[in-house]
Input
Amino acid sequence: MGFYQNALNLIDDGDREEPFAFIRPGFNKPSYSTAFLSALHKSALPMDCGQHGEARACVNCGTCARICPVDILPQFAMKCLVADEVEEALAHGLLDCAECGLCTYACPSKIELREVFRAAKAQYHKETL
Ligand code: SF4
Ligand code: SF4
Output
């Protein structure tokens, strides 16, 4: 850990296969959407880092934009950065990103949005300072 870091969170990697996961009701599966029956109860659920599958494309669901606390458009900013359109990403609010990671957690495609934004912001500040 670095000098300015004061917390260390350890989370289960969740890298296990779950047979017939697509037909399971998901009582104990944390999810931002209401796709699982866990939406019916609000008690705390175990959380892990499992991505439940391979890399997936953005499906334009808008979940990241709805959950973002600083009201930027993460999906558009991410796509601009992937296309190397930094000015466009800035116009979509890249520098306002608080790097909270909520978008990454809620994204159904498990795209590492926060890491993309963190790296892009670091690169931008390095080049402009
Ligand atoms: S990491 Fe950035 S873009 Fe994602 S929800 Fe947090 S503030 Fe918004
Ligand atoms: S939550 Fe994920 S899949 Fe949905 S729009 Fe955002 S980046 Fe795309």
About this structure: The two ends are 26 Å apart (CA to CA). The chain has two domains: 1-53, 55-129. Helices lie at 63-67, 74-82, 86-91, 102-106, 113-128.
